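During data preparation, a discrete fold description was generated, and the record follows.
___
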Amino acid sequence: GSGDGQGQILQRFPEKDWEDNPFPQGIELFCQPSGWQLFTERNPPTFFVAVLTDINSERHYCACFTFWEAVESTQLQSHPRNGEGDEEEGEEEPSSPVQPAQLFAPKSLVLVSRLDHTEVFRNSLGLIYTIYVDGLNVSLENVIGNLLTCTIPITGGAQ
């Protein structure tokens, strides 16, 4: 009714925690600090980076790219009016002149790193978002796998 809700992790990479870098608990709360709310219009995508500090005082840079997707309205079912029961066959209920508003829900892509590289985070999440919204024939799992497995040369070493 109010449009407020809770965030939910739909997918994560890697699927299991790394021993030296566990998945931040409660990150879905961090993605929408004002709460998960539905909107009647599509907002432009947003990006921000926040620093989370764990119990060992280690920093985790959390880049959050949020965009809005249309959701199905759950209020489209017809309900009996004024306590009336089933209508007789052949009678049709007049259609409502007011159509329910289209609602949009936030969806966030989050990148967590121990390194502080804001532009790399923005570009990587922007690429994933573009592939997702353009419906390209590339699975997000492959894109993310390719981003995570790129080899970075040692400073001063051979390219």
